[in-house]
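Hi R.,

Here's the chain you asked about this morning:
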Amino acid sequence: MADKASHRQLAGTWLSEFHGLFPEATRETYRRSEDLEALEVALGTAWGVRAVSKRHLETIEGSGAWAYQRSWPRLSAQVGEDVIRFSPGDPARRTIETLYRWLKHIEVVSVLLRFMNPKDYGIMSPPVASLLCLAPNRNQVSYYMAYLAVLNEIRKHYDSRLRIADVDVALWSAAQLATDSSSSSKYKRLRKEMYQDEFFQTLRLKNLLAGLPDSRGRQSSIRRLRWLAGALLERDSIVAGLLLARSFEELVRETAKGKGVYQYGERSEIKLIAYVDDLQKLLPEGRSWWRACLNWRNDAVHPPDAADRELTESDLRSFLDALQRLEAVTSRVRPISGEYRANDELTEEDFLGGGPVN
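And here is the predicted structure, written out as tokens:
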């Protein structure tokens, strides 16, 4: 238990340091200091009675304790004299929905909740959402709920005693200070620690992948492997090669099943080669691609000793393109036209196959 605690404390150093750098971040961003605690005191009573009014909006809009964003509407002039009430027993989603129906602006809702109850809420901040690689969501309430869930996951991993608002503040400071253009050696060190933090990077990747279409069935899984490989080509050629290799293996087996030549039982390299030989005969229009993909697959899974024979980025792009063409041959699905290009815009139709070829 002690080892786990010390590891958690070490891993969270960058988070706690960025939390302490909040005054510097606000001065660099807004050319002023902020007193968030003053607003917590001013709005804390609203949470106690579970009621929000025009007066509370005027407090966050006009307080000299912090900088109300210019991009946020000043809703106090529009809401009239209504008092919005919510039950102490309401779950978070219902509370957010109640305020969102009233204000129709999720960031202002998040500001209210953050100052009324900093223990459980944070401000819906685009810089933080970007840092977390949070996938977009058309449902604003669901988007904010997902945002809070990620902040809570970070809180539980590093220090469960933290408030959600504290995590939010630390990440906002990181988003403002840990930039590529930062000249501060301290900021550079913290940025390096943050991007080498395995838990944090895994969480960011999970958030990013959550934005992909769901994989339903083996064919969709094959395409997802291929798409991930394409995204990694310029970042990590080894992992990209392994993903393409697995995509090819699954495509071979699924096609062999469809053509009636698949033998159920133990999988082996010999069987994979045998399936490729069979498919070259059964699908002559893809003859050269089958063999080329098998060779690329072998080099990805079993890298040759000679450095000059390792897969290059050009090899991997050709591997990816050949897999797209093979899928068109085997499943009659229209491939993404042309060779893979990093800046191509892919639609959901591309992910799900695009339908039959006429």
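One quick note: The chain is about 65% helix and 0% strand.

Cheers,
M.
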